[in-house]
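hi! just following up on the protien thing from before. the input was this:
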Amino acid sequence: MSLADDVKAPIRHADRFFIGGQWVRPSSDATIKVIDSGTEEVYFSVAEAQPTDISRAVEAARQAFDAGPWPRLTHAERAGYLRAIGAEISQRSEDLSQICPASAARAVARDCCPSWRPRPSSSKAGPPATRAPCCNGAVTVL
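and the predicted 3d structure came back as:
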């Protein structure tokens, strides 16, 4: 069974890195086990970047920046790209919410706002996503 087969979260290539426009194999077999804080069980595993991988990614990013169009774009053009990225992230919010176990978000809210608790849910899926009233609303609890 490969690392990718063990993934429960919606991650397509947990055993690779996206570097230079391609999914590439890491330089080692090292992994990071992501623990669900609610069950203390491994939720999923991802490849662990080594210095070689990081250097390769930084070099590819530098090359893309120097040879690509980004530094020559206007502020308005850059803003358009960033808005498009934000829209894509919003469209994938359901997938992204499954990457981090919900209990981890609750732990952040609990530590940030000890007196706040999410409202009870009548749904079988658990409590609805809500914003903690502190931290300027920066903590979303799933």
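Helices lie at 3-6, 51-67, 75-91, 93-99, 102-112.
The chain has three domains: 1-68, 70-96, 101-142.
cheers
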